[in-house]
Amino acid sequence: MDLTNNTILITGATDGIGKVLAEEFSKLGSNIILLGKNSSKLDEVYDQLDHSFESQKHLILEADLSILNNESAHEILRAVSDEFNILDGIIHNAAILGTMTPLEDYELSKWDEVLNINLRAPFLLTKTLKPILENSPMPRIIFTSSGVANMGRAFWGAYSVSKFGLKGLAEIFANEFETTTSIRVFNFDPGATQTKMRASARPAENPNSLKTPHALMSCYLWFFSEESSNSKAHYYEYADLSKKVTST
Predict the structure, then answer these.
(1) Residue 183: what are its φ and ψ, rounded to 5°?
(2) Contact 188, 95 (CB under 8 A)
(3) At a CB cut-off of 8 Å and minimum separation 6, what does 26 contact?
(4) Which has the closest alpha carbon to 137: 229, 9, 209, 39?
(5) Is 235 a catalytic residue?
(6) Is the residue at 19 inside a domain?
(7) By C-alpha distance, which of 189, 172, 21, 11 is closest to 90?
(8) Structural domain contains residue 79
(9) How many helices (H) and strands (E) does the chain have?
(10) What is the DSSP letter of 117?
(11) Half-sphere exposure of 32 (CA within 13 A, CB side)
């Protein structure tokens, strides 16, 4: 699978799954666009990316997704377009947990922050970056789902609501794009993984009992493969997709 000079934008690229994906895709020769709000962390991840491939280049985009609007989204489009003619993929990985509290006690400011980062920002980025994605021969958009997107659970509040919304957003984009563009849209639930968010949500859980973010790489590679172009499904869970990837 040749991903040399594929250009992939990853949100939430400074920690956890996003950071690992950035590092691993760069090792395959991809150009990585790191999007995050912490400049020092972005610099650290940038330095850890592979820079050895001829003509390979990476880009840092410092942006606070909680306040993303049309103007700042178009600034991101211009920054990407200035460096690259093509965008081959977006991995919508950025998300925050919010507070684990009953809905009646949920603070409106935190509610808005969670919905802005987890749902509004992916919507804005997708619609804004669509034109440059269409320059790619095999463009991909991958939204990150969760088990709480399928059934409401007490105390998961805005996070669960945002993931319900993101699942619907991915399905609508997938349906709209499949007859008018070559963009393939996937919604992926990585399942229980060793991340800071997981530790915050389940502090009593033994992290050593969970898979590491590196275990997800084969699934993300499949999304960028020729095989995924023929897939009729848009939603995948790690448990099922990892078996599919292993069997092929």
Answers:
(1) -70, 125
(2) no
(3) 32, 49, 50, 51, 56, 58
(4) 229
(5) no
(6) yes
(7) 11
(8) yes
(9) 10, 7
(10) I
(11) 30
Domain that holds residue 124: 7-247
**DSSP string covering 139-163:** -EEEEE--GGGTS--TT-HHHHHHH
Task: Say what the pTM is.
Answer: 0.96
Q: Is residue 61 part of a domain?
A: yes
**Per annotation, catalytic residue among 46, 106, 159, 235:** 159
Per the CB < 8 A criterion, the answer to whether 85 and 135 are in contact is yes
Number of domains in the chain: 1
Q: How far is Cα 135 from Cα 202, in angstroms, rounded to an integer?
A: 42
Tell me the CATH number at 109.
3.40.50.720
d(CA 137, CA 133): 9
Give the Cα separation of 236 and 186 in Å (integer): 8
Residue 2 domain flag: no
Per-residue pLDDT tens digits for 108-162 = 999 999 999 999 999 999 999 999 999 999 999 999 999 999 988 999 999 999 9
